[in-house]
Amino acid sequence: MIKKEKYLQKLQSSGSCNYGTILVPLPVNLYICNVKSNTMKNVLILFLMAIVFSSCSAFRSALKPATSSQTKPAADNSRFIEDIAIQPDVNPVPAKNPGRSTPEFVTKQVSGYGAPLEMYSINQFKYAIQLNVPVETLTNASLYNLIDEWWNTPYRLGGTTKKGIDCSAFVQTLMLGVFAVQLPRTAREQRTASTKIETEEMREGDLVFFNTRGRVSHVGVYLHNNKFVHASTSGGVMISDLNEDYWRRKFIGAGRILQPILPRP
What we know:
The protein is built from 7 helices and 10 strands. It is α+β, with helices and mostly antiparallel strands and 265 residues long.
């Protein structure tokens, strides 16, 4: 403060202020000198602030950790019902027909048969279980419908109706109703009308003959899996197995009707 007062007294005594090379009268020189002093202060403050800010920026840049040039993939937070995560397929299988939007339906094939299961009747499923074979092997629905119609009909010697029927009459009825083949009435005559075949060659619709009374006295129709349908004296119309002791001992051969064996429509 003492130096400033002396400086002002000197200016007042000289009556001017040296502003560069220009001498300014006293009434004006104080104002100009004050302006110059304030301006220099402001410039100095701004210069110092710029230095401080630039130093801070450089310091922050030096302390900032280096980041990897490779951007990490965003975590897959996709979710579905009940918090089930959805994960993309790692090795997607290319579509066979990219332009096709409708699904392709394939008919299920079992044991080499191509017919869909919906084509088979309840009776075919029923007797497939009883014969222990795939239902696809029972292609003749009319055969198993007739068997089911006559099932448990009692045996009666000489009978031809559902009140009672014997073995040869049942075979005659079956062959006519299913295969449109007219057979003779008795078991012996039916064997004569058929062609003898080996047991390994037997197929659905062949005739099987038995000796129960010292001669050809019983007949049935072969189905599948060593089983045949017949009118038994003990159980009526039923299915039996050729491997049963009684029938294995009484079996005398098999025959095939050479007439066209075609099921009725």
